[in-house]
Amino acid sequence: MEAQMAQSQKLESLGSLAGGVAHDMNNVLAAILSLASIQQMEAPEGTPLRKSLDTIEKACLRGRALVQGLLGFARKGLAEESLVNLNDLVRDQVALLERTTLQKVSLEMDLANDIRSIQGDPSSLSHALMNLCVNAVDAMPEGGTLTLRTHNEGVGSVCLEVGDTGVGMSPEVLEKALDPFFTTKPQGKGTGLGLSIVHGAVKAHRGTLVLDSHPGAGTVVRICLPASLQEGQAVAPLSAAPAAASA
Ligand code: ADP
């Protein structure tokens, strides 16, 4: 009970902190990130300049994950809503990560041609996808395969799966993996916020999240979100509907 109160006080003060500084810091990081990406295109691979730019990109992505994690605690519901195509979201994320994070693994994509749109917040979903890709790659220090898959499930759901052939999670880790601040990564590498941000985003979209993981075999994270009722037409905002329970 005491531990729970301490945890909720911790989250509350993180929320106020986020309200004050995280938004501005996020914009600063976005500006650095986009300039670094432009310069990366000019700098040939293997040169010291390119290595520095790759390091700047990595540091910004890490900073952005931290700041957006704090923002996620401060914000309730979705910052914006539009029709989102998960295939586009996957392709954009791959384009963003392919020159750095994804270099260490092989990538397989299996995107359903007839994928239905969902109504949601594209930046919160792409941030969630980035966290899942980073986790998947971290789980494959010796290399392996990252699989990004989308499919329609029945008429009502659209699913995105991020799979890896990495170290997998023990039952003890699996049980705590979604908790904020739980990490098995070395200090300075893990924040323990990645999956809790993903979980928060999925809940805000009234979706479900399932972790399927086996030590030594790998992990599949499956997110299913409600398909938009009418493609191309505005529907009632999610924020107006009561949140449904999810994983
Ligand atoms: P962080 O990545 O900062 O540690 P997360 O909340 O994203 O925080 O993940 C919590 C923990 O869950 C990780 O430290 C790791 O032990 C485990 N985990 C998450 N994703 C994977 C994965 N794809 N494979 C194996 N373990 C994972």
UniProtKB/TrEMBL annotation:
It comes from the Bacteria. It is found in: Membrane. Residues 20-229 form the Histidine kinase domain. This is histidine kinase. The chain holds residues 759 to 1005 of 1122 of the full protein.
